[in-house]
Design the sequence.
């Protein structure tokens, strides 16, 4: 009897991983789409988080960074302050780990910038805002306007430009980047 339960548990675990891989199957476009939908929908945020948990992506991957960013969305949707802080802590741990392994990835840096720039500074979760902003701006400055991800990069530049974390020189540079990526 015990062996049957063990077998069912093992089979269930394998099926969950297979289902997650079938949903996303290495297609980051689907994760990006679902993440955008989850920004304003708690149910979709929970669903995406559960799928990424089942996928269990490797730490340096973009999927892993989205896993962390999705956990930050769970904090956004949570009403309990203790849950919020717990989600933020785990989200920043994942994002920090992903960036430690893939530090020049503009998309990962933007995710962490977005999470940290939204945090009250007294919580101590805004340590990398200026570092991330610099890496993103430097990376976007070298992006070709014909790049397949130019809409995403334009979004990054526009949102950093709207933030309160830019000086006048950075605002000018980001405005130029937005214009370049609009062509």
Sequence:
């Amino acid at each position: 009897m015990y062996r049957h339960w063990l077998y069912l548990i093992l089979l269930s675990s394998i099926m969950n991983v297979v289902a997650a891989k079938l949903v996303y199957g290495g297609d980051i476009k689907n994760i990006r789409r679902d993440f955008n939908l989850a920004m304003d929908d708690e149910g979709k945020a929970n669903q995406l988080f559960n799928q990424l948990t089942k996928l269990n992506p490797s730490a340096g991957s973009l999927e892993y960074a989205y896993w962390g960013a999705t956990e930050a969305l769970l904090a956004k949707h949570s009403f309990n302050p203790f849950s919020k802080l717990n989600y933020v802590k785990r989200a920043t741990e994942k994002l920090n780990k992903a960036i430690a392994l893939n530090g020049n990835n503009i998309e990962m840096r933007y995710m962490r910038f977005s999470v940290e720039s939204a945090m009250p500074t007294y919580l101590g979760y805004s340590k990398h805002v200026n570092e991330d902003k610099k890496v993103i701006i430097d990376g976007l400055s070298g992006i070709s306007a014909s790049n397949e991800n130019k809409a995403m990069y334009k979004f990054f530049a526009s949102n950093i430009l709207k933030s309160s974390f830019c000086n006048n020189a950075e605002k000018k540079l980001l405005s130029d980047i937005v214009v370049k990526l609009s062509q």
User: Anything to note?
Assistant: DSSP finds nine helices and no strands in the chain.
